């Protein structure tokens, strides 16, 4: 059983699972907005997420962002490099509007990882800020990009609501990770669990889920399927958040919590 476990760990550590989650969020968006699926964009998001996440997780700790000493991390580095080449390839097939938007979102991701502030700090060093930046990039990639790609006619009404809902959803998705890492994070990070405590962080998450649902009332085009999806996602995340604590194994958040978008897409597809 060693090899299946190793493969599964690589699947998680190399950010393949989170990349699938991002793609599923995109596919959920095109389903609800009833726009065409751009498979070149899906491929770019998949490979782009891998290179971006792995650069943040491993590159910032490497010498000059390239030289890693851990053999396992070297394998992930090679995989990330190949993913980066694939992302660059599919980027060339995207229209100019998408390319400009992607460059802006990539710039935000770079600010998250690369130190540019005083005392050699990056935005990741500010725990209270990083969760909002991650949620913003996710929302941009999975809602704004498909809207821009299809030039949605009702951009002034539906898309901002979907953007806010995706932003809130990702914020709640991040909270179990923040709670799990509480005992490892430097106190200077001032993450939400450090500032509010675990119990209040969970209450914040429940409140965000309520707001997430309330925004659906503002969307006149929301179907019964969309309502069902949002209610089920809110209940599922609330349950995950309720049972989150510092001693949970990494698979709880890194696999099960991040599986919520994947399971949501499967549920919507088979409805």
From TrEMBL:
Key words of the record: Membrane, Transmembrane, Transmembrane helix
Residues that span the membrane, as ranges: 7-29, 41-60, 72-92, 98-117, 129-147, 159-179, 200-218, 224-243
Keyword NAD in annotation: no
UniProt keyword annotation of Transcription regulation present: no
Stated name of the protein: Prenyltransferase
Organism encoding this protein: Croceitalea dokdonensis DOKDO 023
